[in-house]
Specification:
Mean pLDDT: 81
Low-confidence stretches: 24-38, 202-211
CATH superfamily: Glutaredoxin
Strand content: 5-15%
Number of domains: 1
Order of helices and strands: HEHEHEHEEHH
Strand order of the largest sheet: 3-2-1-4-5
Radius of gyration: 23 Å
Oligomer: single chain
Length: 214
C-alpha cells in the first residue's frame, strides 16, 4: 500500500495562518495604542479666577502658570520640556508653579525621573500637593494640565501643551498659551490635555502609565 505524501501547501498553511493571526493582533493592538495616545483626557471646568485661600499667590506683574504633575507619569516629561521651551519664549515674565501630587501612602513617588526633570526648570516653584487637595481647588484632574492667569488672577488659558501623550513638538496648545502671554486677542482659551490621571489610587494609575511609556 502506498501512503500519500502531504502536499507542501498543507505543511505551510498552518504556519501562514498563525502568522496572519499574529500580524492582525499586532495591528489591532498598535491601532488601539495610537488611538489612546491621541485621545485627550476629560477635564472639568477650570477655576476661572484664582481660588480663595490658596496656599500660594499669583503674580501681580506678568503672568502666572500652574502645571499639575503626577510624579510617576512618563507623559509629563514631555509637558515639562515643552514648558521649558515656553519659558524661554514667553512674551512676559512668568511665575511658574509645579503642583506635584504627593499621596501620603506613596512617599517614594517623590523620587522619579519626572521630579528630576521638573527640578531643571529655571525659577519654577515646586509645591507638594497632599492627596490632590490643591488640584481639587483648581479642578485639575490630569498630569500636564496647565492654567495661565493674568495679573488680576483671571484665567487666560487652560489645557495641555503637548500634541499627544508624551509627544514633544509644535502643537496648538503650546502656541495658544504663548500667544496669551502676549495678550493677543482671538486666541483659543483651551487646548486638549494628554496625561495620566491625578487620581492617587495606585490601581487606576498603574492601568494608565504603560501607555505613556509605549
Amino acid at each position: 500500500m502506498r501512503w500519500l505524501s502531504k502536499s507542501p501547501l498543507t505543511k505551510v498553511a498552518p504556519k501562514a495562518l498563525c502568522l496572519s493571526v499574529w500580524l492582525c493582533a499586532v495591528a489591532i493592538g498598535f491601532s488601539v495604542l495610537l488611538k489612546y495616545k491621541s485621545t485627550s483626557a476629560e477635564v472639568l471646568p477650570p477655576a476661572s479666577d484664582w481660588p480663595d485661600q490658596c496656599a500660594f499667590q499669583h503674580a501681580v506683574i506678568g503672568k502666572t502658570l500652574v502645571m499639575f504633575v503626577h510624579p510617576r507619569c512618563p507623559c509629563t516629561r514631555a509637558s515639562i520640556r515643552e514648558l521649558e521651551f515656553a519659558q524661554a519664549r514667553s512674551h512676559c515674565p512668568l511665575r511658574i508653579y509645579l503642583v506635584i501630587l504627593a499621596p501620603e501612602q506613596a512617599a517614594e513617588w517623590s523620587d522619579s525621573d519626572v521630579i528630576r526633570s521638573a527640578a531643571q526648570l529655571r525659577d519654577a516653584v515646586q509645591i507638594l500637593d497632599t492627596n490632590g487637595e490643591i488640584a481639587a481647588k483648581f479642578n485639575a484632574r490630569t498630569s500636564g494640565y496647565v492654567l495661565l492667569y493674568n495679573e488680576g488672577g483671571r484665567l487666560l488659558f487652560s489645557g495641555g501643551i503637548t500634541g499627544s501623550r508624551g509627544h514633544e513638538g509644535d502643537n496648538d496648545g503650546l502656541k495658544a498659551m504663548l500667544e496669551h502671554t502676549a495678550d493677543k486677542s482671538g486666541v483659543s482659551p483651551t487646548a486638549p490635555v494628554f496625561g495620566c490621571s491625578l487620581d492617587h489610587s495606585a490601581s487606576l494609575f498603574n492601568r494608565m502609565v504603560h501607555v505613556c511609556q509605549a
